[in-house]
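call fold target=Exodeoxyribonuclease 7 large subunit
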Amino acid sequence: MTASETIKLSALTGRIQQALSNVFGEETFWVVADVTNHAFYAQKGYHYFDLVEKDTNSSAIVAKVAAVAWGNGSIRIREFEYVTGQQFKNDIHVLVKVSVNYHQVHGLQITLLDIDTNFTIGMLEQQKQQTLLRLLAECSDYIRKVGDRYVTRNNQLSFRAVIQKLAVITSGNSAGFQDFRHTLEHNRFGYAFQVDTYFTVVQGESKAELVQQRLIDVYNSGVPYDAVVIIRGGGAQTDFLLFDTFLLGRAVAKFPIPIITGIGHQKNETITDMMAHSPVKTPTKAAELIIAHNKAFEDGISDLQHTILIRAQQLFSSHYQALSQLNATVINQTRTILQGQREMLHDYHNVVSHGSRSMLQHHQRELLTLSGAILARPRVVIAGKQNDLQNITANIRSFNRLYMQNRRGQLAHYDTLFKLMSPVNILKRGFAIVYAGDKIINSALPVEPGSPITVRLHDASLEATVTAKTPHDESGTDI
């Protein structure tokens, strides 16, 4: 190889620069790609990043090129972030207008000139609409669409009259949760709340399953919560993709406790918001909603108290007038009745006076007649009773003689019977009394051969010893 066959590197890069300039020149291209390796230098307003294309089946990178945005391109990125609410960062899918450049030191480079906001918004919205259609198709038992509104089992629930027990699903370091709690605890009405926290990750589409699990934990806790609050602070549009997932939308739609969402977005409404009972923009608004609900109940009670008081006063006034009229009527009618009764009493007095005189004169005549009869009657009665007494006296004397004779005959009979049954007479008839020791025996059972016995006759007692004992029946004593 000769020296004439070699060139300097600058000459080569110059020729590459010239060739690329000839091919691309001032031409620009709209490119669909993903952003990776993003770095932003705020002092100069420069963005450095890579644009990559991934295989739709394997997610493997099939193309990659370094890119930069400054000047007008940096301004367009800032406008993109403002319109979409999406931060320009890694892993977002964008449609960008670029030019192709080659620098002899920095090499091949893509310069971002513009970014299509509608592409990003449209893509996210398309995914959202597909998820909503799937929810309607697969969850028709508890999700349906009425006009532009989604009617779910959850948003058909009613809040309890007062909300006090709250389950809050949020991240442990969420500033939005701190705002929510501060608003509840420092409400100017002095309402007290029981707040149980269920911390989890609330960012990233892949974390939807974690949030669903926390909802399951709330249900399985057995605590009768008045409401569940899902809280997240503000962020970019893609930060809310978790709340546009089918998994979380389905879980919220059929949850049996009213769900309040305070996710922190200011522009778009997430699917979770559409399925929930009460969606609000921020965690603070969620707290204010709860306080306002309780205040409405308190106001209702106060209004009812005021209505009852006014009605009671009206009733008291009307009934007081009615009572006054009734009192006057009672007084007048009482006077009329008393006057009528007074006249009737006067008439009755006259009737009673005349009637009493007639009755007294009649009964006086009856008493005189009865008095004469009473004076004659005792003598007749006494004479009859005296005759009865004489007859009874004669009967007693006769019955007494017969009774005494009968009793004397019975006594003589018993006396003869006692003499016949006397032990002395029995012994004289040939009977004996046998003693074993000092006890009279009437059976041979307690006596054994060789035992001493005493035989008492009517004129003497014999001491003997039993030599033998022969059992027999009583036939030998028959008379």
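return ok
The mean pLDDT is 84. The longest strand covers residues 28-41.
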